[in-house]
Amino acid sequence: MRIEQIWTGNDFRNFHYLIACSQTGEALVIDPLDHALCLAQAKALGVQITQIVNTHEHPDHTGGNEPLRAATNAKLLAHAKSSDAIPGIDRGLSAGDVLRVGKSVELRVLDTPGHTMTHVCLYAEFVERDAAGTESALFCGDTLFNAGAGNCHNGGDPHVLYQSFADQLVKLPDTTRVYPGHDYIARNLGFTLDREPDNQAAQALLPRVREQDMNQPLVTTLGQEKTFNVFFRLRSPALRSRLRERFPELDELASDEAIFVKLRELRNRW
Length: 270
Ligand SMILES: [Zn+2]
Fold this sequence. Notes:
Bound molecules: zinc ion
């Protein structure tokens, strides 16, 4: 299984993904906007794009569907309930479905509403064991970002997004690599430090990602996210006490959901 993270360099800071079976040369593309970049990457690797997945219906994740299909004849896959918003879906996706690419790639569909109400993530349980011991991967669209969470103001709901985090994402192995739909890591780490000024993981990482080559971006793991992503740090005493200064209505026993929703609200204006 080969994973190519494609940096678009556009104003939305999108990432596209090309996932290929090393044995058969078949490939799946996630969230194409810049279809030409996807085609160029496939050509460079000598693979054939046979499937396109949209994690959700926003135009910056679907905009390349038509030209990419015209060039490749690939099948289009998206949430089973998103057919009103995404034309031409060949296969509607539901929780637990398994996508196969060639002989060596299996991706499990997670139904993860919140950023929009029809959002899927793809989970590859086995990628490979590398020096860091990571062996699974999550393609999370606009649900989870490096050091952040998706916004909910274009058809979403922060309470529902919290449930997707709490019921599904938190339970995946800490060694899972995180592959989001956009690069917002520097700004998100700034938000972490606004909320948790003493967060050492965020302090250490921020200068590094500000300088990073976006064609070789840092890939975090869920275990790392739990150290610097405030949306996974809902029980941090420092985070909670600082949030109560801003929202006095939160008491010491505030639920994780209430904390998550207030963080999302603050991040909207930050
Ligand atoms: Zn979106």
